[in-house]
Amino acid sequence: MPPSLKPVKRQAALGDQVYQALQTHLRSGAIVAGQPLQEVQLAERLGVSRTPVREAMMRLSSEGLLSTVGRSYVVPALTIDDVDEIYEIRFLVEPAALRRVAARTRDAAVRAPIDAALADAIAADAADDAARFRDAAARFRGAWLALVPNARLVRVVEQYADHMQQIRVLTLDDAGVRAIVLRGLEGVAAALAKGDGERAAAAMEDNLREARKAFIAAAALGDAPPPGAPAPVKTQADGNGSGKRHAPRAAQTARAARSTNPGRRSAASASSRSNA
How far apart are CA 121 and CA 135, in angstroms? Predict the structure, then answer.
């Protein structure tokens, strides 16, 4: 056998390609909670047979990014219990992952993609461009995750960050929520610039803690108000002191949560109690 003969590079399996396409689609927030996903329609859109679509959706379901309702898959609506469980995991893994990369990010060249993503997030926030802000925040996470040497740890971080995508889509058009998330990104970036692993881990813990509170409040996932209190309408004052109403989108999430997670405390239960 000639020593120069080397294995050829193979394209990713079709099932993996479909999985990645659907994962990207889910991350975009284009699919709302409770919206059914049908194998036939997806296969036609992707130009493949139903088998790789079924395999990809089963894989996404095993990761908790899809759930089954009848014969369809849907994006599950998150309840307050879901958010608590997701953030419990994120608190365990993300600070630890950041702690491992901080020694490398003292180098400005290594840190450049992180800084570029942060700059884009700042610009997007100033332009009130929520979609661009979500993209920049995702690139910020991807930039530091690319430095983590443990591939299994990276997959866990990505998976549970993906679980929060639907709430990001619902809430990051709120300037107040964006400001909280942006402060968190800036704190993490400042610690990484100093190469301080402990400070970076602490900054990530603060970021997760504040983002969790902001997302829960903006998506109306908190506890019900006292009996007799008026139904809350979430507002965020702009620079002129006027407010933006966010209740309709939160209520939409509530209805989806009620239909897909009837046994858990959800936005739907909080909303219905407040209107009783």
Answer: 8
